[in-house]
Amino acid sequence: MKVPRWIALITMGLTLALGLQLWLQGGYSLTQSAGIPQWQSEFVLPWIPRFGISIHLALDGLSLLMVVLTGLLGVLAVLCSWREIEKYQGFFHLNLMWILGGVIGVFLAIDMFLFFFFWEMMLVPMYFLIALWGHKASDGKTRITAATKFFIYTQASGLVMLIAILALVFVHYNATGVWTFNYEELLNTPMSHGVEYLLMLGFFIAFAVKMPVVPLHGWLPDAHSQAPTAGSVDLAGILLKTAAYGLLRFSLPLFPNASAEFAPIAMWLGVIGIFYGAWMAFTQYDIKRLIAYTSVSHMGFVLIAIYTGSQLAYQGAVIQMIAHGLSAAGLFILCGQLYERLHTRDMRMMGGLWGKMKWLPALSMFFAVATLGMPGTGNFVGEFMILFGSYQVVPVITVISTFGLVFASVYSLAMLHRAYFGKAKSQIASVELPGMSLRELFIILLLVVLLVLLGFYPQPILDTSHSAMSNIQQWFVNSVTTTRP
């Protein structure tokens, strides 16, 4: 029964290869920013011409980086679930491919209807992943609960976004007499102030649920702690990035004035997210829940960066998104490997594992240190570019959120301490455990190398995303008629 695995692996490998090839052949670092969206490659096919809906895919530096990240994490997700998945292998890998296909669609779709179509498409297979192959939580909740919670949250957010998209199209039709779902035409929709604010809120809520921004994050810890390893890797590494991408690509450029007005609120939500995520991570016993809360904390930085409108912070957000994708994926994969050996994720049952296992504790230490933003890893570059860029715009918020880094070190080191040091706290942890297989070692070492590369030489990524981010930033800043308070 190895066929589905190999099909999935080869498919994802091809996707990754194609992404890298596009990266190599496109002159991303050479493009001059023009203040309007510029696409490196486009694909247009009329779909429902009567309403101006077309299958319109387009690629710029930002989408390209996200697609490459998706391809990479897709390969790793297939590899890390190689042994873990016993039942319904074909269906499992179908769902995995389906999620990744939907995510790549989200990163490439420019037609709003198509974007919504892909956005909803990512959702169903993720539900199946959690409901069919999930693990039981340590507090006794079932995986069906987690899956349903995830489904309801995301479905509701999708509904809000659909209403906002349709309203935007109607507003455009009333102003111009043309039905169109085309992004570039909708950018120039004339709107009254109140309408713009309402539509912006619709988009913001939809993306905030996925990101997750604090009052709307309820589904994340449950979904993460019950998902299989591959599901967690996809969820943390890719699905969370679709929200940040959506804010950058749609929310800001379509509604610049409303976004500028809303920015202080959004940034404070980001600050709350940073601290709330860190505090909650510190109190968790279930390792996967802990990592889920660290994700909330890290995405808070990205949210602050998106609403500053500073080019430096935007570039930092791209790096932070990629680095968080890699480091969270690494932590979740290590968690999965630990779970396969101990059959528990409860840190109260661990302790003293450092001497009982080869390789795994040391690599966990690397990823924990990367998560807290150690210089030399990608997370450091991202977080500090965000802080430098935001400081010129919102010094108070930046100074406060800097303390979030202190809390990050607290929860990372607490996790290491509880799981790997001290005395063995139970029978399970006191026996010798098998070391890592070559496959497991390869996955993790690949992530380690990529994170360190990103930490020491982020320039290629900055060059690639520069023109795209600068276009978004110029569009945002130039469209804002009033200066910010």
TrEMBL record:
Residues 110-405 form the NADH:quinone oxidoreductase/Mrp antiporter transmembrane domain. It comes from the Bacteria. It is found in: Endomembrane system; Membrane. The keyword Kinase does not apply. One of its GO terms (molecular function) is NADH dehydrogenase (ubiquinone) activity. It is a multi-pass membrane protein. The chain crosses the membrane at residues 53-79, 91-110, 116-135, 156-175, 195-220, 232-250, 262-283, 290-309, 321-339, 359-381, 393-416, 437-457. GO terms for cellular component: endomembrane system; membrane. Pfam families: Proton_antipo_M. Keywords: Membrane, Oxidoreductase, Transmembrane, Transmembrane helix. One of its GO terms (biological process) is ATP synthesis coupled electron transport. Belongs to the complex I subunit 4 family. This is NADH-quinone oxidoreductase subunit M.
